[in-house]
Amino acid sequence: MRMSRFTNAIEKAIESGDMDLVHTVIVTMESKQTPRDFINTLKDYPVASAWYAKWCSLTDNQKLHDHFYTQDNFEASALLSIKELDNSMMLDAKIKLLESINRHFTDGSKEFESRQTKEQIALMRRQMALQVKVSDIIGLNLNETISLLTQRALLADADNVRKEFKISDKKFGG
């Protein structure tokens, strides 16, 4: 099938409302077209694009990342990466994934989300450094981290964390 046959096939499949037919056409298009042509074709058909995203979410997260990226949907790509975070992951692997998530938020001009992700990365790095003194500090939120350091009489470390994350004296003392 040439490009015009693909566009004709996808249009007719969408018009029919038969999602099995849409699936068949998309799978055929993906296997027969260059990745660039396939992506460009999908961009012109939001129903097919949405269906492809749904299908990829069930079968292949990497294709879904690629699809979101080509659609300039950086926020969706970042949110997909967040779903991939796993509590059993090693901390340095989580940090690398969060750095990738931050790039997606930055590319998508999501300043608040980017800032929050950077702070989470900084907290995780700080916890890695403190793990020598406090073995059960990994995975705590900021308040829990400071509270645990205070409970363990590591006041200088608690104060350093407070300063690094710009927590006011009033909140820290209260």
Question: How would you sum up this structure, described in words?
Answer:
- The protein is mainly α and 174 residues long.
- The protein is 77% helix and 0% strand.
- It has 11 helices and no strands.
- The longest helix is centred in the C-terminal third of the chain and has 20 residues.
- The radius of gyration is 23 Å and the shape is elongated.
SSE diagram, text form:
Elements: H1 3-16, H2 19-32, H3 35-43, H4 46-59, H5 61-70, H6 74-84, H7 91-107, H8 111-130, H9 142-151, H10 155-164, H11 169-173
Helix pairs in contact: 1-2, 4-5, 5-6, 6-7, 7-8, 9-10
Query: What general form does the structure show?
Result: elongated
Strand content: under 5%
Name the average pLDDT.
Answer: 87
Given helix and strand content, the structural type is mainly alpha
Which radius of gyration do the C-alpha atoms yield?
23 Å
Biggest sheet statistics: none
End-to-end Cα distance, whole Å, is: 70 Å
Helix content: over 70%
Q: How many strand units?
A: 0
Tags for this entry?
77% helix, 11 helices, single chain, mainly alpha
Offer a quick outline of the entry.
With about 170 residues, this protein is mainly alpha-helical. The protein has helices at about 5-15, 20-30, 35-45, 45-60, 60-70, 75-85, 90-105, 110-130, 140-150, 155-165, 170-174.
